[in-house]
Structures
1.
Amino acid sequence: MIARLRGRLAGKEPNRIIVDVGGVGYDVAVPLSTYYTLGDPGSDVELRVHTHVREDTLALYGFATGLELQIFERLIAISGIGPKLALAVLSGIDVTDLVRAVMGSDVGRLTAIPGIGKKTAERIGLELKDKLPKGLIGDAPDGLAPGAPGSELRLDLLSALLNLGYHRPLAERAVDAALARAGSPVFETVLKQALRELARG
C-alpha cells in the first residue's frame, strides 16, 4: 500500500493532481484544503496517502496533513460514506470546523456541506464523534486538548495569521508546526514561531 508520496507536481486541478515520482505519474484525488496548499506545477510536493482498493479499482487519496488523512479514514469507515463523499466533506468544511461541529453535534453546520443531507449529517455526527483521533478530545473546557485542532490557543493563533492575510491551509500548517516546536502555551511565543515557519516556506 502507498502511504506517502514525495515528488514533483506534474499537474493540478481542483480535487485532482498528478505527482511525478521518479518518472511515474501518480493520479491522486485531494480535498480542496490540500489543493490550496500546493504550489505551481513543477514544484515539490509531499502528501500523506490513503490507498483505496475495491475489486478492480485502485485509487489514491492525498492529504497535506496527517489529521486530514485520519479524519478521511474515519469518515469512510462510516456506513454509507465512500471516499468521494468523504473527500467532498473535507472540501466543504475546514477540518477544525468539522471536528467542532461533530463534537458539538451541530447538524446544521454539517448539512451546509454540499452533498450532505440531514440523515447523513446525523450519521456523521453520531459515528465520527466516537472515532475522532486520540488527542483531539481532552480536558479542555471546549472539549479539545490544548494545542489540538479547535483548542482556544490554536484558534487564536489561526485568527491572528488570517488577519495578517495568510491563506488558511498555510496558516494551519504553520500553527501546527509552531505548536509542536515551541513547547510553550504562551500566545506570543508560538505566534513568533508560526511566523518563522511561514518565512521558511
Note: The two ends are 30 Å apart (CA to CA).
2.
Amino acid sequence: MNRPVILVAIKGLGIGGAEKLISESARFWDRSRFEYRVVYALPWKDQLVAPLEALRVEVDCIGTKWGMTPSSWLRLRRSAADVSVVHAHLPAMGAVARIFAGKPVIYTEHNVASSYRFPVRLVNRVTYRRNRVVTAVSDAVAASVAGYPGHGARVVPNGVSCDIVPGAAERVRAELGLEPSAPLVVHVGNIRPHKGHANLVAAMPRLLASHPDVTVVSIGGEKHEGDLPRVRAMAAQAGVSDRLRFLGRRQDALDFIAAADLFANPSDFEGLPVAVLEAMALSRPVVATAVGGMPSLIIDGETGVLVPPGDPEALASGIARILDNPALAGELGAAGAKVVERDYSLEAMVRAFEAMYDEVLGG
C-alpha cells in the first residue's frame, strides 16, 4: 500500500531553531506510515541539508540564486503534485504553500506575530484562512495570532533530544583557552533584530565589574551580510570584546552549551527557543528574558531565572546570581532537565504532528 506523502516546507535550511527542529525530527519520523520529503527556497541556507540526506530524506531546493521568486512558487506546486499534506513552517513559506501548493496545509507558527516585519505579517494574515490546521510552539505564540482568520492555533510545544559526544565540553573549553573551572556563559541565537545581542553587549560591563574572569560566548549566523562584524564592533566599542566572543554560525553549538556554566537568552521576542530547551535538557541553568513562551517554560527561581527584556542590569544580575551560587545553579539545572524530559520530548512533538496528518487525511 502506498504511504501518504508529507511535504515539509520551509524558507531555508540554515542553522536556526525551526530549521533544526525539522532536521532533528527526521530521526523520529514514522516512515513505515508516511513518506517524508523536504523543500526549501534559499540555496545559501543549506547547512542542514546534509544531515537530512544522511537520514535518506529527499531534499529539494525550489529557490533560485535570488531566493524565493515566482518560479519557486511554481516549483513548489510541482513538488506537491503527488503529496498528501504540506507541513509549512514560518510565514513566508506558509503563505506560498497556502496559495500555490494545491494541497491541504498544516502550518506551524514559531514566533509571536509582532516579531515579523509588517509585509510578512500582512501576507501571513491575509492567507491564513487557507490553513487546514494551525499549530503554535507556545501559548504566547498562539495568543499572538488569535485574531487571525480561520482555525485557531493548537499548541504543540517544541521538543528536543540531545546527544553529546563524550569529551565535547572539554574540547570546547580547550578551543576557547579556558580552564575547566573558568566561568563560561553561552548564548545561542542568530543575529537578527530583537534577538538581544545589544542587550547582551550592554550587560557585559556590569557583569565584568563583579566577575572579571567570566567569558561569554554568543553563537549565531548572520541574517544579513555584515551582521557579525557589526555586533563584534559593538563589543569592541563597549570595551568587552576580550570577554564577549561572537563566534558566528557553528554546527557544534550544542557542544558549547554542554561546556557552559549557564545559558543566557537576552531576546526581546521569542516563540519557544530550541536552544533554551537544549540547555535545560543538558541540566544547564538558564537566565532568560521573560518574553514569548519563556514564562510558560521557566518558573523564576525554580527552573531558571527570568529577567525583564531590554534590561542589561537585570540580565547581568541574573547571570551573576547563578555564578555566585553553585548550589542554586545545580538545583535550577536539575529542575529544568526534569521539565524538558516530562513536557518537551522531540518524539512526542513528532507523534502529535503525525496524528494531525492522520486527521487531515481522514477528512
Note: DSSP finds 15 helices and 13 strands in the chain.
